Amino acid sequence: MKPVKIGLLGLGTVGSGVVRIVEEHQEDLQRQIGCPLSIEKILVKNVDKPRSVAVDPAKLTTDPHEVLNDPEIDLVVEVIGGTGAARDMVMAALERGKHVVTANKDLMALHGQDVLRKAEEKGCDVFYEASVAGGVPILRTLVDGFSSDRIYKIMGIVNGTTNYILSKMSQDGAAYEDVLREAQELGYAEADPTNDVEGYDAAYKMAILATLGFHARIDFRFVRVKGITGVGVEDIRYARRLGYEMKLLGIAESKNGHVHVSVEPTLVSRNHPLAAVSGVFNAIYVYGEAVGETMFYGRGAGQMPTATSVVADIVAVVKNMKLGINGRRGQNAYRQVEPLPDDRVFARHFMLLQVEDKAGVLAKITRVFGDHGVSLESVVQQPNVKHPDAEIVIITHEASRASIARVLADFESLGAVRAVKSVYRVEG
């Protein structure tokens, strides 16, 4: 049996996992696809670097052209990340008629439609299951499993680093800075954690999920992003007191040709399944018109979970090769949509206000909400032991973003409100 030959771009954590799975699971893989898999060439930065997986040194190269120009290589696997060299190499591979499997969320969120157009033009497959939620097979499920349904909302925890930080803050009552330092020591957070804690990593993933779920090209510039750096111990303490857990949620909604995608710290009711997702785990909640509500849960990162998704995509490409149907999947984003305006984005909201501690203040505050048509679900007021002012915690009923913005603008000119300390969306 003639083997399918693979060129691997990158031999870091995920690349090493791919090599390990292909070698250790070779018999099982052959039974699925009917032929061997052979990793022929591997692009690395340094051929002499010690590695966690044994590789024939003759297969290593620092020259991408040895991979991209090799006529024997049928399939290129890209696991180096980024949108510069990785994009150029993926496009070059497709131009030469090679199928592509990638784990690169940045590439697919920012340049995915260009990549998919080139793949369609050249009759090639591009699969990228590992770009979102590691070992959780959510992308294939959105494309195939929900092909007969219409998805109208996707909500999920898609960044393990921030979920670990918020989980520890909730469980231990620890401050953000202390938990971040611990996460870095454990290897859950990078030395520069900006991409995770400011929400950009989750935003890339939500752009991909929304594109596939709603069959619409989601421009990353329209994704609202707010990270967790401003979440304080008191926010989490009040959330727990009211029956909620704080999570960095990605939320995508589709309504009548308009789409809203955001990433933001959100209070999730303890009755909702997402509230129980702790540590570095990921979970995606999908709402379909026919199927109702479903949730997909698992390890969202790590060498072997991510590598498992990469190899599953390799198997899918090879099966298509055997059937002669590569490149026929077409582009998924065939709908034209516009961003959903703020007066049509509805949610409940949590607010923590610092106010004058005297009679009549609460009436003034509730009057502002009433002026903008925002009704209140609950109000908790208590003295602040560290300050002469009082703290008021409010959870609203569903209100538009536009209405909440007008309420906050009025609070700026209301002398009784010393500060709006926190504002968060509420789900569940």
Explain what this protein looks like in three dimensions.
This protein has helices at 13-24, 26-33, 64-68, 85-95, 105-122, 138-145, 160-172, 176-186, 194-197, 200-214, 233-241, 303-323, 361-371, 401-412; strands at 4-9, 37-43, 60-61, 75-78, 99-102, 126-127, 151-157, 224-225, 244-255, 258-269, 281-288, 292-299, 338-339, 346-355, 376-383, 390-396, 399-400, 417-427. The protein is an alpha/beta fold and 428 residues long. The N and C termini lie far apart (54 Å). The longest helix has 21 residues, at 303-323. The chain folds into three domains: 4-132 and 303-323, Rossmann fold, CATH 3.40.50; 138-299, 2-Layer Sandwich (Dihydrodipicolinate Reductase, domain 2), CATH 3.30.360.10; 343-427, 2-Layer Sandwich (Alpha-Beta Plaits). The strands form two sheets. Strands 7, 8, 9, 10, 11, 12, 13, 14, 15, 16, 17 and 18 form a twelve-stranded mixed beta sheet that branches.
